[in-house]
Amino acid sequence: MIKLYNSLTKRVEELQPVNPGKIKMYVCGPTVYNYFHIGNARTFLMFDVIRQYLKQRGYDVTYVQNFTDIDDKLIVKANELGITVKELAEDMIIHYFEDARALRIKDADYHPKATETIDEIIKIIQGLIDKGLAYIGGKDVFFDTEKFKEYGKLSGQNLDKLEVGSRVEVDVNKKNPLDFVLWKSAKPGEPKWQSPWGEGRPGWHIECSAMSKKHLGETIDIHGGGEDLAFPHHENEIAQSEGLSGKTFAKYWLHVGFLQIDNKKMSKSEGNSLMVRDLRQKFSPLAIRLFLMSGHYRNPINFSEELLQGAQRSVERINTAYNNLNYAINSGREQELDFTDQETLTKADELVEKYFKVMDDDFNTADGLSVLFELVREINIYLQRERNNLLVLKHLRAAFERINQVFDLLWEKEENLNSEIENLIEERQQARKAKNFKRADEIRDQLLSMGIILEDTKNGVRWKFVGKE
């Protein structure tokens, strides 16, 4: 039974999808005017982990993550660069996939763009006007928040005391300071589309409602994003979506906590925004991935280079254990199970069970990773024995792969790399026996260039992949 914290109800609830066995999930993606930073990466990664865990648990998940490819920020940046908004957006979307895939964030089932959803946006706005929930102010169209009686139910904001201008766009054409724009009239030099209210472009909030409805329908199971989006963005999505349909927009709302840099909030004003693209030049993508999963998604986490270095060592520890386990399997044999074998089998099963228990509790990756490290410890202890049972070794590997399925922390190797390494090691051994030490050293150097180091053990030569990432 999966439990999750619902930001809407402010309590932990049992996951009960609208349609049994199926999950519809929408997560607010990047505004593609720049590379994405490590705070964005945490949100994108954690929701992909949640998606993958739901699939591991047997759910049929349809996952949508959008691209906001028309926005004030894009217009300003494109003008600075002397290119069109479309050129900027398309370039940044390419870079998004490069960085996201490097962190092993899997592509969503759908990655809709706001500019490809204009017809749906216009239809929703007209529907809101027809229901008396939106009005024309000046040359723009606004949502009338006073007409939606549940406005504020997600964020829990005291709407009467909200300071005008504090995350609320000020506009003299609004009836109420909290009203938000659905359609912006065209300004000279900006991208624009035809609408019943004249040429213009959509407001930010309406884009996500339209893209979610287009690909997932009027009611979805999970809507997610960073906690900074709860107000006003997600609040406004609820108002316009539920105002139009009269139905629940999203059953569960999940929000990822902030990421700090050296205990300071990451922001432009602090000048401490860290782009994933830049971090990849200094750290392994898998170290970044492990670090971002090391805290519970709802809790804030603090970034420092020391923590990334620690994550790098942890990734190496995980991979060394797995590779040593595979080496032992390749040279192991089946034997009668002794007491230690039985004990190890039981422990492996208990750890798999523990993994599912902690991950079922609001997707607790921090505790889930702790379980993986417990298993790594058990593997290392078992491999120190003089006698290794092949059945136990394979059982440990199966447990490892099950727990690591979502965490995905193993280095990638070419399909034929294992056999190539084994052949080179065997050739080196033969060269040493023949006292051809020059050739033996050449092979060691060749392996080192492939990211492989050799270790002499009581059970023979083992190799460790230290990686080329």
Structure description:
It is a single chain. It contains 14 helices and 15 strands. With 469 residues, it is an alpha/beta fold. The chain folds into 3 domains: 17-256, HUPs (Rossmann fold, 3-Layer(aba) Sandwich), CATH 3.40.50; 313-407, Four Helix Bundle (Hemerythrin (Met), subunit A) (Up-down Bundle), CATH 1.20.120; 417-465, no CATH class. Strands 4-3-9-10 form a 4-stranded parallel beta sheet, with helices on both faces. A 4-stranded antiparallel beta sheet has the order 5-6-7-8. A 3-stranded mixed beta sheet has the order 12-11-13. The longest helix is centred in the C-terminal third of the chain and has 27 residues, at 305-331. A motif ('KMSKS' region) lies at residues 265-269. It is found in: Cytoplasm.
Question: Approximately how much beta-strand content do the residues carry?
Answer: 15-25%
How are helices and strands ordered from N to C? EEEHEHHHEEEEHEHEEEHHEHHHHHHEE
CATH superfamily label of the largest domain: HUPs
Number of strands: 15
Radius of gyration: 27 Å
In the CATH scheme, the class of the largest domain would be Alpha Beta
Cofactor: Zn(2+)
Family: Belongs to the class-I aminoacyl-tRNA synthetase family.
Binding site for ATP: 268
Subcellular location: Cytoplasm
